[in-house]
Inverse folding.
């Protein structure tokens, strides 16, 4: 799809012009023809969006139903999705929605050797950024103890939909020594038992799940998450449950039940206790925080190379979540980095807990 | 408010004319002036609706904040709300929404001595009907082992908003030996510790909670439920969680956390395990049912005196929930009663589980 065609999306209210430093870009706020939401036109080239992948909730039938050929199985990492692309002399990081992410753009040179984008500027790296030092989501994989890490899981070409085939991607990952998601190999749709064993192992290791990519020209994809992931999502977000759609929680409980039913439950009582804990411990923390500080919030702590990018991140967050909901605590040089600490206010949870802890009425 | 004024509500799309056997009635589908949704005009008299009561989620502040005077504390029974009124020579039972309930109307003479409505036909009895033999909701109090029981908790007069004062109601309950909710006495707003102890006892006994009614002319009311109730609601409905708003579950988890925080937790691990069980055991049952029968449903079993009322109930349910979602299993005379057995299909849950157990994709 050509850049000029995407400009038409503006007239259909499916794209917006935006600026970021010296760059002007067109960002798709909605799907337009075959270009997904989050596709971007910048410096005359199209960087396709990364569309969401459908999930299966059952291996036994899902593999047979979804795949017509063997498929590659890769780790699904619990972080946020970015695309890294060469734009002029810069490397910019685009979020799922097509915004330029000041944090990832700032830190990209630390997280991966970007030589590949200098030598092959038509390539786009699709990656997950995860760890306790990221500014967006509350959870992170337990095996990343500090800061953030980047894991490439796909490559695209600018101005082109679709991904590089697995062998080509794998060769480039090795050639450029890029950090990548773990590839667990190539499975056939009838290898249900092997996949079940793999998912049991991933649960054990505290990993989110897998993305499966059919080894064929249609490159059909689907994902499946572990019970660990369901529990961890609830545990990590329940303290602001009113700020998320209720379906977020109910959906995860349902996924968990289906996962357990298929995997067989080794320790039934413990899984039940863990789920109860996931809900109640976080809520108990939120209640305590509300009583103590009259609000519910998370403090994020992120490292930046350039303090201007920290300011850009805060400006972006204030614009998208509301000015009063993001508050800087400090931005100071520590060693090689500038450390930004900021609070994200959970407005709905703060309001509700303040109201009911003060003795207010609720109608439902 | 006069009957004639309520007829105006039809023009504002807030009321409908309906028929039930020989009776024509006007039913408020929405609040109109001070008449709540579910108010009814029948045989020239107005039977006011029973408005929903706001809930508090914290005793320590809620009592002080809500009440300016001592208040009566009564048991909140886990059933469905009806109003019983004399209409011509009949006694009819009206649901919360203002529909005539064929089941309660049929069984009312078994459940209470209705002499009061013959002798004082301007009275309306507000009651909860609860037990495993009722056709509407899935849960019931554990202390009602079979069929249904009725518990009067308020009395109104036709053509008048508001309830009879507590002493007058209590005198009539005793005079006519009517089954009523348990009254735990009159408390002052500063008796937080006493109320806390009462709620601990109610949780222990498997009771839903309390309704508190200020002993004053403004008759302000509020309710509070036990942790038992939160768990039991989840346990009783999670097998059809897609057929209910997700907020139903999330709200109950939040109530539970607030209740536990205030009551102090005697056995932390066990409460967590119980909550996990409440979610996972019911889902596991639904998954098994879906695998076995390709659908998720509940079978209800209710006794009727007159089989025509059983047929009326099914017709009403088919109209309100969709024809395909209610299926009669049998209607047969057993001893003094006609026993109706019917299945209520949980369409959304059946559809979702069928899809995912068959290996289908979910986007969320």
């Amino acid at each position: 799809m050509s850049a000029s065609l995407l400009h038409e999306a503006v007239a259909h209210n499916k794209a917006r012009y935006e600026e970021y430093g010296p760059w002007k870009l067109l960002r798709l706020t909605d799907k337009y023809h075959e270009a997904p939401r989050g596709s971007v036109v910048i410096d005359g080239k199209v960087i396709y969006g990364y569309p969401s992948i459908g999930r299966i909730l059952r291996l036994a039938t899902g593999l047979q139903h979804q795949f017509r050929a063997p498929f590659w199985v890769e780790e699904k990492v619990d972080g946020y999705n970015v695309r890294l692309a060469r734009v002029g002399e810069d490397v910019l990081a685009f979020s799922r929605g097509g915004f330029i992410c000041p944090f990832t753009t700032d830190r990209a040179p630390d997280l991966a050797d970007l030589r590949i984008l200098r030598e092959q500027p038509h390539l786009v790296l699709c990656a997950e950024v995860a760890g306790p030092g990221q500014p967006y989501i509350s959870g992170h994989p337990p095996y990343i103890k500090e800061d953030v890490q980047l894991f490439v899981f796909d490559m695209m070409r600018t101005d082109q939909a679709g991904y590089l085939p697995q062998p080509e991607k794998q060769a480039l990952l090795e050639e450029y020594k890029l950090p990548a998601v773990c590839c667990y190999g190539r499975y056939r749709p009838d290898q249900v038992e092997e996949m079940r064993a793999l998912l049991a192992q991933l649960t054990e290791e505290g990993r989110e799940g897998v993305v499966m990519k059919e080894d064929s020209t249609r490159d059909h994809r689907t994902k499946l998450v572990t019970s660990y992931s369901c529990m961890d999502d609830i545990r990590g977000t329940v303290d602001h449950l009113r700020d998320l759609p209720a379906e977020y929680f109910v959906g995860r409980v349902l996924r968990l039940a289906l996962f357990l039913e298929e995997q067989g439950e080794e320790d039934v009582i413990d899984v039940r206790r863990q789920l109860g804990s996931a809900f109640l411990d976080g809520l108990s923390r939120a209640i305590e925080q509300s009583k103590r500080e009259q609000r519910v919030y998370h403090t994020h702590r992120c490292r930046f190379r350039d303090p201007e990018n920290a300011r850009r991140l805060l400006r972006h967050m204030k614009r998208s979540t509301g000015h009063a909901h993001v508050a800087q605590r400090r931005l100071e040089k520590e060693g090689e980095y500038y450390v930004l600490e900021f609070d994200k206010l959970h407005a709905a949870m703060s309001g509700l807990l303040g109201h009911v802890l003060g003795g207010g009425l609720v109608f439902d």
The domain at 50-76+183-225 of chain A is CATH 3.30.470.30 (D-amino Acid Aminotransferase; Chain A, domain 1). The two ends of chain A are 49 Å apart (CA to CA).
